[in-house]
Amino acid sequence: MTASTGASSVRGRASGREKGRNLFGYTLLAPQMIGFTAVGVVAIVWVIWLSVHDVNVLAGTQEFIGLENYSRILTDPSMITVLPNTFFFVCVLSIAGTIIALLLALLLDQALRGINIFRSIIFIPALVTMVAWALVWSFIVQPDGLLDALLGAVGIDGPPWLRGGWLTLVVFALIQLTKNVGINVMILLGALQAVPHELVEAGRIDGAGPPRILRSVVIPQISPAILMVFMLTVVGSFKVFEVVMLLTEGGPGVQSSVLAFEVYKQGFLLNDIGYASALAVLLFVLILLLTAAIWQARKRVVFHEND
Amino acid sequence: MRTTSRRRLLGRTLNYLFLCLVAFVALTPILWMISASLKSPSEILRYPPTIIPEEIRWENYTDVFALQPFAQQFLNSVVIMALVAVLTLVMSVPAGYALARIKPLASGAIFLALLSVMFIPPEATIIPLFQYAAALGWVDTHYPLVVFTAVLVTAPIATFVMRQAFLTLPAEFEDAAALDGSGRLRTMLQIFVPLVRPSLASVVVLACWYSWNQFLEPLIYLRSPEKLTVPVALTHYEDPLAGPLWGVQMAATTLSIIPVLLVFFLAQRHVVSGLTAGGLKS
């Protein structure tokens, strides 16, 4: 009898403690969660709501038009250029960006004299404001700028870099890549330095050459970091904005434009809020689908020590 | 014996060659910017270009301040950056602690929700956020640049980093603190928070860096020249008829990267560890 009351009172106290614990946890989470709900959730619901309306900014009216803005995306002739451009950056920046970052990280992981200086140098562009980087590059690729002069020194006439077409996209990709590769190199370098020496040593004793060790030991060990870099670059490549805005404003026409810039252009330059919102939702959905797909695929690609 | 040492020498030389090439690509734009910032308008457009200015023109740097309230704009960026960092800490440290150590009911779902916020591009929510700011009377103020940025971008990332940091600490610390009669709040503030100081530093650096780099948001929310932030101000050194004032613009751009480089060399270790923390312990 007494024992059971004792047990129940202990349980009562324990659940009381549990309640206090939950309450304390929620109090700590409150600032973040309230802010997130009041700004993030509201903004997402709002942008979806706007995307099914025809918004007239001057008259201040909003008329429900269903999915018309979305069907307009399908028939908009400029989307035939803008969407492939966007995917070009996503593919090139994420795949080439990750591979180049990995190669640079391996290069910088060696015990060479003065290696720290090179590590710092490659990280410097990542620190510079994207706007500053884009402005400096617009100065470099202008007609008769530094790039043309460098090519002229070896007898090549520089093509018109910013006159649209694939060349302009490549120039943009290079600007974006050189700007951000340093961050990815740092993440991968950190992972490389955390690879246990015993594993590499064991591989060497088993007679594996450097390429084999790289493929069978090092890459699996740093695969979570590679995945993270890949996801960061996928997300980041949807946000190619500053270069487009500052170097060509998406022109000529929409030849060098991307989805993110079209959202800005339609929403804030042309005041077509409803259509811009539909484009924004499309941008958001594309990123979500792609990151979810990568996240689903991670189990097949990423090596987990604990599994 | 001889051939291996020769091969090693060759390998080392190749490595240095590659390293120098990488350094060249990374540094040329910055050196070119500094060189242009000291040139006269006529020398800037000369072809073939000169690498070292023939005549150093310091006026570009004084023009930076004469053409725009650049000092004020610089201060704006610094103040916004500091406020974003503080707000980020205030939200992310308790939240990260709760997710890692307190684990209230449904904390897994909350964590997932926060993770998904990290993937929302600012472009996707800028339209409703602008209308939001307009409804609050926040257009042409710095509030949206502080509040929206911290709540939607920097604090979720920081919460993730803080959660990972708090997870690495052993559970014995809590038990010991509880035995000593320390309350939950005191345990958190006096025992756990001091132990994750490197992560606090990296969170601050990341928040500052993100805030300092923002372009689309200030471009949309701000109107008055004296309220602009540095990245937007950099794009305003243009002659409406003749195009960009390259010399002045490059001088302003040079000035804009100095504080970033300073912070980096002061906090290099933390920047790097902050970037690597999330990738390694998952």
Describe, in plain words, how this protein is organized in 3D.
Chain B: Keywords: Cell membrane, Membrane, Sugar transport, Transmembrane, Transmembrane helix, Transport. Chain B: This is Multiple sugar transport system permease protein. The complex is a heterodimer of chains A (307) and B (282). Chain A is mainly alpha-helical. Chain A contains 12 helices and 2 strands. In chain A, strands 1-2 form a two-stranded antiparallel sheet. In chain A, strand 1 and strand 2 form a beta hairpin. The longest helix of chain A is centred in the N-terminal third of the chain and has 50 residues. Chain A is globular and about 75 Å long. Chain B is mainly alpha-helical and 282 residues long. In chain B, 77% of the residues lie in helices and 1% in strands. Chain B has a two-stranded antiparallel ribbon with strand order 1-2. In chain B, helix 8 packs across helix 9. The longest helix of chain B is centred in the N-terminal third of the chain and has 36 residues. In chain B, 45% of the residues are buried.
Tally of individual helices of chain A = 12
* Major β-sheet strand ordering of chain B: 1-2
Total helices of chain B: the number is 13
Question: What is the topology, as strand order, of the major beta sheet of chain A?
Answer: 1-2
Q: What percentage of the residues of chain B does DSSP assign to strands (E)?
A: under 5%
Report helical residue fraction of chain B. Answer: over 70%
Keywords (chain A): Cell membrane, Membrane, Sugar transport, Transmembrane, Transmembrane helix, Transport
Subcellular location (chain A): Cell membrane
Protein name (chain A): Multiple sugar transport system permease protein
Membrane topology (chain A): Multi-pass membrane protein
